[in-house]
Amino acid sequence: MNFNWITPLALIGNAVNNVVSSFKREATAKESLAIVKAKQELDVSMTQSKWEHDKKVQEMRAYVQVGIAQKQIEHQQRLEQQRAETNVKLALIQAKNQQELQERSFEFQTWLKEKEWAENRALTEYVQQMQLQIANNNLDFQKWKVGEEKELALTLKRLDGEITLARGAMERETQLVLMNERYERDRNPLWLTRRQFLSDAEIESLRIFLSPISPELMGKLPGIKNNVETKLTKIAEYYASQGRALRFFGDAWTNIKDAQEATAQAIFADYKSQPILILNAQMEGEYFYLKYNFWASNWQTFRSGVLVDQLSLKEQQHLYAKREVQKWQKLRQESPNPDKIDQLYGANNTQRLSTNLEIMEAETEAIELGLDTDHFQYQISEKEVKQSADYLVLLHCLNAGLWADIYFLLYAPTTQPLPPLLLTCLQDLDLINPKDYSREEIAELIGNLAKSYNEILQVLASRGQGVLIADLHLQMSESCFKLKLYELAKEQVVLSVSNWLTHRNETPTGDLNNLLQLMKPLITSGDRPYITALQEILHKLGVNSYLDDILPFLNLLAEQEEKRHREEVEAKRKTEEEAKKQLILITPKADFTQLDKYLAEGEWNAAFEEVANVISIIQGNCLSDFDLYDLLGWETELRIIDQLLLKHTHGKYRFSMQQILEGDEFFNYDWSPYILWLP
């Protein structure tokens, strides 16, 4: 058997290959294990590295954030520091700029004042000219409107007065006839005869009668009747001295029982053509009542009512007793020697005052406890009795004056409403004794009167005479000022200005200063009397007026109007002179050339002879007795005589045809009775 070397080698190679393959497989397996292991280790290492990396990243991020926060804080601090430095620099710059601005502003103001001062005169003249032009062009209608309203109100008042006078005269004559038939028996409650009463004074005269005072009242207040009559007589005389026809009749009643309502009705029926006020004082127990009856001319019925209702005379006297105790107490407390005060008062008065003081203290305690105090009886002296009587007298005077003002303001047949007089009458006649009333009581009393007048003045507005109210309020303000009631005086000024604005279609708003500001653009030259009176009372009251600069302007307007009026009069005079120069001295009936010559030379006797010749010619042409009919054809000639006299006597004399008609001799050379002196 042949041996082939190749085969063993091949086998060895295969074996080797197998070994190698085995080794390779082992190596591969090991390697795979190593790889797996390495991979596992690598994964673990990577996981560990990633964790460490993430940790470092977190640490780095936290560090960075801390750094950023620190940087932000540092940046904010630097920013605040820079801002503070900037503000300081800005403040310095602003202060510097402000100083420069003030300096420049001061320089500008100085320059402006110098410029204004330089142009002030021209500007003032221009403003005055513009104001004059505005006043003349824009306020003429307002001036005309207010003037027409005043004129219309006064015309209405005048016509109403004329109608009242005419109706009253007719009614008075009718009443005389009727009463002569009706009163055959003596049933007249007044001691005056009817004809004497109706014919005693003018029809617009207001008669005031005082009904018989009850015996109860005269028993409690002796002398009150004479006191009331005396004061009412003084008031009537005061009103008469101020142009108000007012008369008071005391003791005019024939019977005390006639002081009843039925008697008032009877008097009204017979004397309704005459304005009458009847005051009726009554006493019922401890209470005083003051009633009234009033009517103006030709009223269909009369008014009646209660002026003072249920006034306790006892309480009034107790009030005066308490005041006396308080006065005594005050004097003793202020005096270093109270016994001296008691000595001056006297033992009896001191004892009475001490007793009244104890009663006052007990009464005060009872009031605090809510107990009845009617049983407390003060000891009343003659002084308290007199004071209570004076108070009732004052009530009579106040109501009589109030009704008199109402009559002359609203119902009297006068050409214009007459302003109230009672407030000034109270002061001029000393009707209010300051010793009996406190300042507050007087202010309250006058304030109530002012409110009554304010309501009365509104009646004028309802009659279309509201344009007159502003002046009336201003007059009342002056009266309040004389009584030293300055707040009331200011209230009347406010009402006056408000009414003034209302009648110029301006709504009055705000206080007095604002009202005065509203007035300024509405004032015209026709308002100068009102503005002047307003300024006077404002200055008296110490009120800063915004109208001081208006008066010079109004005076300037008045001067211009007066100048224009003088120019118109002068132009009219020149026109008349020119007409006189062109007189026709020769007519178909007479030649006046010689008369013109005599008058020019002052030959009065010769001139009168020429006039006599003309009159003789007129009489020679008369067909009957010399009368007005004969003069009508000689109107031209008589007018020439009149114009020649006016011409040569410079307007002092003129010819009177009426006196010629009434003369008996026409050929008398003394014609002076027919020459009229012109004032």
Q: What this model shows, in words?
A:
There is one protein chain. The chain is α/β, with parallel strands linked by helices. Among the domains are: 1-119; 583-677, no CATH class. Helices cover 68% and strands 6% of the residues. The protein is built from 22 helices and seven strands. The chain has helices spanning 6-138, 140-182, 194-199, 215-220, 224-241, 261-271, 313-334, 338-345, 347-368, 382-411, 422-428, 439-462, 469-482, 486-502, 512-519, 528-540, 550-581, 593-601, 604-620, 628-632, 635-648, 657-662; strands at 206-210, 246-249, 276-284, 287-295, 303-312, 653-655, 675-677. A five-stranded mixed beta sheet has the order 2-1-3-4-5, with helices on both faces. A two-stranded antiparallel ribbon has the order 6-7. Strand 4 (287-295) and strand 5 (303-312) form a beta hairpin. It is flat, with a radius of gyration of 56 Å.
- How would you spell out the order of helices and strands? HHHEHHEHEEEHHHHHHHHHHHHHHHEHE
How does the overall form come out from the CA principal axes?
A: flat
Sheet/helix structural class: alpha/beta
- Major sheet attributes: 5 strands, mixed
- The separation of the N and C termini measures 205 Å
Helix content: 55-70%
Radius of gyration: 56 Å
The strand count comes to 7
Give the number of helices. Answer: 22
Widest sheet: strand ordering: 2-1-3-4-5
pLDDT averaged over residues: 76
Indicate the proportion of strand residues.
5-15%
Q: What are the low-pLDDT stretches, counting only 5+ consecutive residues below 50?
A: 1-7, 623-629, 658-679
